[in-house]
Amino acid sequence: MPEEQSVQGTRWTIHAVELLKGLGWSPRGDINVDIPCTIHPNRRNPHGIDAFLTYSDPYRKKEIGIIIETKNYAWRSVTRAFIQETVDNLIETIECAPLSDEFQRRLNFSNAAVNTGLILIWSHDDFERDTFQRYLKELEIPKKRKLSTIYVLNNYDILKLYSLYHTIKQICSSLREPDKFDIYYPSYSNSDSVNGKNFVNLEYFTSKFIFGKMIESINYKNKSRDINTITTVFYFDQLNLESLNYLYLSLKKFQLADDKIRIYHYNDPSHYRGPIREFVRICEEEHGKKVEFLPMLQLDDVPWRVV
Amino acid sequence: MEIREYPNQNEIFDFFSDFIFYDDLRDYFKKNGMIFATNKQSDIAEYASKIIYGYDDFEMIKSITSTKQRFNKITGFQIKTDKSIEEIRSSFESGKVIHTRNKLTIKNTTFARETEKIQVSYSFERKTPGRMNLINAEERKGDFLIEKKEGSTTRIVLFNHSKNEDYNAVRDIISSIKDEDDESFFEIIPMTLEKLPVSKRIEFIDQILQRGYANWSLSEVILIRVKKVMDLPEESSEEVASNGNEIVDRSDLEGINDAILRGHNLRENSFVKKCERSGFYFPSIIMKLAHESEPYVIHLEIQFKFRPEMPEVNIDQSFKVENGQEIESELELEFRKSALNQFIHETLKIFNDIARID
Predict the structure, then answer these.
(1) Is the CATH number of domain B73-189 3.40.720?
(2) pLDDT grade, residue B117 (50/70/90)?
């Protein structure tokens, strides 16, 4: 059984790395690397790193490295204690890794800043989102002098990421020039500049809106001509009018509202047809924007398990 | 409230830094799968200000600022009434609007028959200057407890406040309860040292320091504030060089500590005698108390505030003792509540004995 679990775990690690790679992250070195512990006197075992990926952070303007921990377990094994142990271990790994020569030599080739971890817990037989959130709320987190940030993703979050990945792929393949789609990071300094990058950073994983822009082009006299810039939003909030109006305020604030706005929504719209119509009307009549809603793919299971 | 502008990063940073308690902030993000292992709220605020929040997120965040209390403070007052417990209970009618201007409303009332304790929940709208659209108006929620006082018809009203408005809300609700003849159900007994002669005010602090508290032992007096009695002629205060609300200096404090820890009466201390002669008293004191069975130490402040006039017990700082070292740490919520409850009752008892309130 433990061997089977290990195979299952490695399989999930490989797929998780693929997913993150698909969202624009760069895998570094091998998966399942052990690095010796240097600063925790009570620890006997080395720190196991399932995977290490980096990306260039648009806000910090530098390469940051994320230590990945993947778990693929039956729901009954996903307990508060299990998550606590996983988080505690990852915090220790994050503390140790930057000081380890082996980590630098085997994984952190670009000398990325490391103070962040990502735990992807896939429960393969069952899942209760409320219970998982309750476990998270009950976790005891140390108050360290130096910040370590850990993201803990569950089935809901993981399926959401797969859906995002799938939709981005779909958008790119629908364009004449696939590179004419970019994820956008709003400028927070009250200037009108925005940073276009073709990857999804960690902060966006928990954001309700993810912004992008696509450029539609046509072939004119054997040359590609851009005809339309479309503001693209991956929308994970509710589809009621308050939430949609709030989205528009954010687009206005970040100067991202082009004449055409395409909203890819994740949540079920069946009870919100009225508010959606009203929002489309307001945007058109009051703001002069043409808005279109398209559904994102809803998955019941991770794609690599669906044969 | 309608939000008319999406907040910028600085506003979100300020909001997370200033309007939410550290533990509540960490809890909010924890539930959403983001864990911040840090002791600095500003680190969390900086990181979290880069996330794009939706309408529901801000509604949730705002509700944390309006509903959560830290339970580091407790206050209370006493009410005289000749009404029966049933009459009192039914007078706090759920849904009753006390003030329309700030939407002060009784939300719910619960009653424990055996202990005769009544808990009243309320809400009101608190408006703040438009620093941020997010917090132009917040709904504050709170509750207060009405307890029986042994051997008396007087009842004690207790609540964990965080702002003066909470005190005003409780007082307004109590004052609004009237019978058919428009007579008030309750007479609020003011709890203020100002009503007592100086000697009694000093006796109050003396008794606070001399008292044996169950489970806690006094290790040190950390701070004492001195205040001049209002409307006292200037010439009578020559001996003590203070004209307002000042802190007792280190050498005098050492003398007081020495006397108290040896079990001597505070009023025998030369500095205290000088204060008493000059018309000064002590409106606020901070004591260091060690728990006798748990590894906890607290700095407990007992004070009488002026606007509004109310006694207040406050856990100013708290520590866990590990390997002989005191590490600053917030104590468990239930433990804080229980300690505050114990000390406010002791404070009220001492005050009542000195002020001769039945």
Answers:
(1) no
(2) very high
